[in-house]
Amino acid sequence: MGRGRAKAKQTKVARELKYFSPDTDLSALERELHTQTSPGGGAAERDRDDDDDYDSWAPGRR
Closest by alpha carbon to 25, among 33, 15, 13? Predict the structure, then answer.
C-alpha cells in the first residue's frame, strides 16, 4: 500500500526529464572545446610512448 502515489510521482518526473530540453548555448560549448589543451603533449609524443611500451613487452629473439 502507498506505492501508487510514489510511483506516479516517479513517472511524472521521468516524463518531464525525457521531454524537457533546455536551451543549449552552442557558442559557449564551442569556446570551451577550443580552449582545452590535451594533457601529456601532442600526438607525436604519444606515438613515441606507445612504441616504448611495446618494446618492453616484445618477446626476445630465439
Answer: 33
The single residue listed with the C-alpha cell 516517479 is 10
- Would you give the end-to-end CA distance of the chain in angstroms? 74
Half-sphere exposure for 48 (CA within 13 Å, toward CB): 5
Q: How confident is the model over 4-54, as pLDDT tens digits? A: 999 999 999 999 989 988 788 889 989 999 987 656 555 555 555 555 565
Site of grid cell 526529464: 17
CB 46 within 8 A of CB 40: yes
Q: Is the pTM of this model over 0.70?
A: no
What is d(CA 39, CA 22) in angstroms, rounded to the nearest whole number? 31
- Cα gap 59→46, rounded to integer Å: 22
